Structures are given as C-alpha cells and as structure tokens.
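To whoever picks this up:

The nightly regression suite flagged Translation initiation factor IF-3 as changed. Nothing in the input moved, so I suspect the structure step. Input below, exactly as stored in the fixture:
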Amino acid sequence: MISKDLRINEEIRVPEVRFVGAEGEQLGVIPIKQALKIAAEKGLDLVEVAPAARPPVCKIMDYGKYRFEQSKREKEAKKNQKIITIKEVKLRPNIEEHDFMTKAKNAEKFLKSGDKVKVTIMFRGREVTHPDLGKQLCTKMAETLQEWSTVEKMPKLEGKNMTMILTPKQN
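Regenerated output under the current build:
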C-alpha cells in the first residue's frame, strides 16, 4: 500500500481497532483512545495498516522512518526496472534493395540496444490494392533480422499502413 493513503493518530476515525505492537505482536481489539494513549506513551505513531479489515488493523511505529524506508524501496524498485521503448522503421512497398538494407541495419541496431521495432509499410494511392507486396516486405524484414528478433505481432493492414512488431531475442 502507498504510504500516502495511510491514516495516522487522530486521523483514524473508528471506535475500536485491532492493535499490533511495535514488535509485531497481536494485542487484540481495543478502543481507539486506549491505542492512541499507548502510542503516545511510547513516543511513536499509531498507523492504520489495513483500513479494509473489520475492525481496521493499526500498528505502533515511527511513521517518518516508515515513510523514508518505503520511498527508499520504491526508488530501488524503479532503478531495477527496464523501460522498453518502441522504435519505428518506415518503408514503402517499392523500396530499393540498398535502402531496404539500410532500414534493416537501423532496425538491427535498435534490437541490439534492447528496443522493440515497429516496421511500418506506408501505402500511397493505389498501392493499397497490393497488400501482398507489403506482406512480402515484412516477411523479408523478419527473415533478415531473425538472428536478433522474434515477430511479436504479425503484419496487419490498418488503413493505409501495414505494421509488424519485432521484439529482441532473449540471450
């Protein structure tokens, strides 16, 4: 649970709570006034850790220290996650071989850096009546890049564009 949603001390507005001590020991269901008094005597905060429970579960802890540790854990989790971006390579159905290889090299570079690649074939005018050319181009791109990628989404015609998504192979 996100620490911003937790209610502390006088913010808790229920007649009685399930009380948990500072070391995690269960002390049963007691009136809120008594729980607040015990927390004040120990110089700690009464924090509502499970508001959905009946009665709500409250624990004695140093709330400032708890929030600091929570934010530290969130930063650590954020540091370990990998953000996957989608790079796009745009082609036309009547592309020349050299231009195709240049686009394939760019896509290979994106895949090696760990990004997904969206291959888009743009049809203009009457070219859209030949979707087979676009499908052949997508197949050729997938075969060219099969060493570094797998096809996540097969070629599909959407309006005047045909798209295919390639993901980098796991090592």
